Amino acid sequence: MAPPDNEEVLWARDLEHAHRGSPALLGVSLGVRQGEILAVTGPRGAGKSTLLDCLSGQLRPDAGEVWFNGVPVHRLAPASVDRLRRERFGWVGETPRLVPELTAWENAALPLLLSGVGGREARRTVSEWLERLDVADCARLRPGALRQAQRQRVALARALAHKPDVLFADEPTAPLHRADRAQVLRTLTTAGRTHAITVVLASHDPEVATLADRCVALEDGRATAAETVEEDGVPCSLSG
Ligand SMILES: Nc1ncnc2c1ncn2[C@@H]1O[C@H](COP(=O)(O)OP(=O)(O)OP(=O)(O)O)[C@@H](O)[C@H]1O
């Protein structure tokens, strides 16, 4: 069955998944509108990462459906999932996985170059993102010479430079100090808003909800609350 609401770029119904017999998702349904910033909150082990993995096609759920723009992600062949993820999705995780032999600029440009964008255009686009993310002066350095916060910003530039339809961010600020955390979160959500990129942002930090349009709270693999965040940034509850 196709998703009922065409405004929802991403739609999931009754998702269930267990890791080696241990249940991680127990019937989660949600929809994300084009350009919306959705926070997925909940304590450690609540199922946030499993949900993002299923939504982004990295994990095939045991049961349930995931649709992206009318495409049944849960039924796609691995090669089609890879293509979807490369061309339409961006991903930033807890640990910035950069190629150690490449400079910050080359790392951030990889998805663009792999998708056939010319060197000059890739250079311009990536330079703009590195500038926006305040790491332009690191462009020629390799990851080993960067601080963790700088590496995470480069990973963010890589995830955003090809202007994905959906950016998935799974605990993107977990390894950062408090000041860096706030700045990276703000940069990420601002980038989403100014470029109409849909953002699905998972974190156990309730502060992320203050930056989102809406919040889904998970607990023990179930959605316990789905709330619209007020303009003054009232966070959604964690317990429903
Ligand atoms: N690869 C795995 N093998 C076995 N169990 C797993 C695996 N990944 C997750 N789990 C279990 O599935 C449940 C949900 O984990 P998940 O990582 O999705 O939650 P989370 O909310 O993202 O937690 P965290 O904030 O700690 O990452 C937890 O009980 C976890 O221990």
UniProtKB/TrEMBL annotation:
<dbReference type="GO" id="GO:0016887">
    <property type="term" value="F:ATP hydrolysis activity"/>
</dbReference>
<dbReference type="GO" id="GO:0005524">
    <property type="term" value="F:ATP binding"/>
</dbReference>
<protein>
    <submittedName>
        <fullName>Putative ABC transport system ATP-binding protein</fullName>
    </submittedName>
</protein>
<dbReference type="GO" id="GO:0022857">
    <property type="term" value="F:transmembrane transporter activity"/>
</dbReference>
<keyword id="KW-0067">ATP-binding</keyword>
<keyword id="KW-0547">Nucleotide-binding</keyword>
<comment type="similarity">
    <text>Belongs to the ABC transporter superfamily.</text>
</comment>
<feature type="domain" description="ABC transporter">
    <location>
        <begin position="10"/>
        <end position="238"/>
    </location>
</feature>
<dbReference type="InterPro" id="IPR003593">
    <property type="entry name" value="AAA+_ATPase"/>
</dbReference>
<dbReference type="InterPro" id="IPR015854">
    <property type="entry name" value="ABC_transpr_LolD-like"/>
</dbReference>
<dbReference type="Pfam" id="PF00005">
    <property type="entry name" value="ABC_tran"/>
</dbReference>
<dbReference type="GO" id="GO:0005886">
    <property type="term" value="C:plasma membrane"/>
</dbReference>
<dbReference type="InterPro" id="IPR003439">
    <property type="entry name" value="ABC_transporter-like_ATP-bd"/>
</dbReference>
<dbReference type="InterPro" id="IPR027417">
    <property type="entry name" value="P-loop_NTPase"/>
</dbReference>
